[in-house]
Amino acid sequence: MYQKLQLTAALLFLMLFSTIAFGQKRYEFTPNVRDAYEKVFSLRFDEAANILSLEKKIDPDNITIYFVEDYLDFFRVFINEDFAEFERLLPNKDKRLSIIKSGDRSSPYYLYMQAEVKLHWALLRLKFEQNFQAALEIRKAFKHLESNEAKFPDFIATKKSLGVLHALIETIPDKYRKLAKFVGVTGTIEQGIGELNEVMLYARKNDFIFEEETLVMYAFLMLHVGNQTEEAWSVLRNGNLDTRNNPLACFAMANMQMQIGRNDEAIVTLQNRPVGSQYHPFHYLDYMLGLAKLYRMDKDADVYLKRYVNNFKGQNYIKEAYQKLAWYELLFNSESSYKNQMANCRQYGEAISDEDKKAYKEAIYGPVPNKTLLKARLFFDGGYYDKAEKVLSVKTVSDFTNNREKIEYYYRFGRIYHKMNHKADAKKYYDLTIELGKDQPYYFACNAALQMGILKESAGEYDLALDYFDQCLSMRPDEYKNSLHGKAKAGKNRVKGK
Questions:
Q1: What is the C-alpha separation between 345 and 325, in angstroms, rounded?
Q2: Structure confidence at residue 366 as a pLDDT band (50, 70, 90)
Q3: Which of 4, 56, 126, 353 has the fewest CB atoms within 10 Å, measured from its CB?
Q4: Which residue in 133, 100, 136, 129 sits closest to 117, CA to CA?
Q5: C-alpha–C-alpha distance, residues 136 and 122, integer Å
């Protein structure tokens, strides 16, 4: 009898314990939640939403469901650029944070997930120019991440986000310096890239759900901030990104290919992108394909640029797309057609990004681009350096009538010879560009100084590199100032103390 009572008591205890354990809030990437996360990153939003909705019913105590759901909102708003949608979904942030905070404080996911949600909405606020609110979000997120690293130094996911923040803080444009100081993020490029490298090494040996997003961030930081082009390409190329079934992977791969002169490969990547009703529309891929084809002077480049401006309802790169359509018309049709597209550039889109501001300025003030210089620029941007040189070589500086075109002529030769590894010729034309253009509002001299700094850095002439980076920072071009100055600051930080 006593043994039966013991057994009954034990069974009741186990039943009670299992009920309590099941009722506890927890952070767990179950197979279904992981599947939803992967579908979010493949832009299969409807499928992801259905999985998460079902998981809320059958496993309501798994907080990770709501964490992945925040990724879904983030990508939806980031891609659509619909401010009304942003305002409609914004209340979800505080609801999810409340759910995350109901979990176990002793878990490394407790602070990590709070930080990630705040970073998601900070990035969205930046897209809609809510800069102060974004700074508040980033400040809170950074403090969560620092606390989490102190409590759980072996929790590798924290380093993913800290690495990005540490690497980017030194490249923030001057106009955001006060906000950056308020945010309180400190760090260096080397520190950030080193942290992401540590995460990647861990991911290669362990099952790490955030591996793919870390891979992409790591590669692009190496390219844009670390000036490690070949290393960045190697990381991305060997990262097993599924470009045929994942539009975001397609974007990352093609973007990198276009930026490092592998334009033909980018066109193949974009032409083989995944399509179908299961994928959320990502119209920017049409813009990229149109641009890549324009670099190659394909006669159907306009087809994809028109698809972008006709279908995308957001605000960014609309003006630039109309500018590129205008260039297409100038090169393939007529100056009057160019002016018609520039009228569209003035009317549609927003002048927020550097690229859109530049396009809008051309549409307002002109001048109509010189066809020779424009062809050389487009061939160069596509990595067709021999073709770019051939276009320019039939001209001399005296063939250009105004000061801007003369400066650009020297600048284009400098850029071409730099990429062709003709360093002495590159230096000659960069110096001519700086001499003639340093007091002008054009970006040519500013970027020539930046590129000379990079040349000197690669040659180990660090004092001269610093001098050129400082020259870049001393100029105030009307075009691309933020991006050029950010790269110059990154360059200075790379070579300091060497």
A1: 9
A2: confident
A3: 4
A4: 100
A5: 8
Q: 62 - beta bridge partners?
A: 26
Q: What is the pLDDT of residues 45-88, one digit of tens each?
A: 999 999 999 999 999 999 999 999 999 999 999 999 999 999 99
Distances (CA, A) of 255 to 252, 304, 420: 5, 16, 21
- Report residue 488 as tokens: 């110059």
Please determine, for residue 14, whether its predicted confidence score (pLDDT) is greater than 60. no
**Exposure string (b/e) for 474-491, b if CB count within 10 Å is 16 or more?**
ebebebbbbbbbbbbbbb
Give 14's contacts (C-beta < 8 A, 6+ positions apart).
Answer: none
Answer whether 432's CB lies under 8 Å from 426's CB: no
Burial class (CB in 10 A: 0-12, 13-18, 19+), 462: middle
β-bridge mates for residue 377, sequence order: none
Q: Which residue has the tokens 């900070």?
A: 122
Contacts of 468 (CB under 8 A, 6+ apart): 449, 450, 452, 453, 456
Q: CA-to-CA distance for 222 and 195, rounded, in angstroms?
A: 12
Contact of 135 with 183, CB cutoff 8 Å: yes
Strand partners, 48: none
Report field, pTM of the whole predicted structure over 0.85: yes
Helices 284-295 and 247-259, packing angle to 10 deg: 30
Cα-Cα-Cα-Cα dihedral sign, residues 48, 51, 54, 57: negative
Asked which of 77-81, 300-304, 492-496 is least confident by mean pLDDT, the reply is 492-496
